[in-house]
Design a protein that fits this description.
The protein is of the alpha/beta class and about 160 residues long. The protein is built from four helices and five strands; from the N terminus they run βαβαβαβαβ. Helices cover about 40% and strands about 20% of the residues. The protein binds adenosine-5'-triphosphate and manganese (II) ion.
Length: about 160
């Protein structure tokens, strides 16, 4: 039985496609949809020099008070994206809740899936990256290869 579906979303077109698929599936099975957006500091701070924003102004430090507004902005964008998915759920009579977390997307997605005891993860094959030639995005690749029993459904772009 599928009673809980996790939909990780980065606001991309393919993630939205995955969300629509998940809502249809939830409607048929009477499941709840949990949307999850993970804000990853490493995506806007240099991974080699913690506390520095790279690489437009090398050598210039960007302390916490400059990082927080970026995070706040990303949270607002995530909220707007997940609000739209919540609306879609409502229109289809599907119960939903939205979660925003900070951290590494792969780790956080699998952790949240285990914690919330979801029966299925519905994820997009690709996300926001410009690397359109990649067969599979790195987040989805990571989630598929993680040591977990939770099934994953990959919605192609
Ligand atoms: P890459 O990030 O590896 O350069 P990409 O952006 O095309 O390539 P992914 O990031 O793996 O590919 O995105 C694939 C799917 O993973 C998205 O459609 C979305 O469902 C999910 N996803 C990606 N990033 C996040 C995130 N930060 N939070 C939640 N879900 C995410
Ligand atoms: Mn990505």
């Amino acid at each position: 039985m599928i009673s809980k579906i996790l939909v990780p979303t980065d606001g991309s077109k393919t993630a939205r496609k995955a969300a629509k698929y998940a809502v249809e599936l939830a409607k048929m099975s009477g499941a709840t949809v949990i949307t999850l957006n993970v804000i990853d500091r490493a995506s806007f701070i240099s991974p080699t020099v913690p506390g520095f924003v790279s690489p437009s102004r090398p050598g210039v430090t960007h302390p916490e008070h400059l990082i927080e507004p970026i995070e706040d902005y990303l949270k607002e964008a995530a909220k707007a994206d997940m609000d739209e998915i919540a609306k879609l759920c409502e229109q289809n009579g599907v119960p939903s809740r939205a979660v925003i977390r900070l951290g590494h997307p792969v780790e956080v997605i699998v952790k949240e899936a285990e914690k919330s005891k979801v029966d299925l993860i519905v994820i997009g094959s690709h996300g926001r990256s410009a690397l359109k030639a990649a067969l599979l995005g790195s987040v989805t690749f990571g989630v598929i290869h993680k040591d977990t029993k939770i099934p994953v459904l990959v919605v192609r772009k």
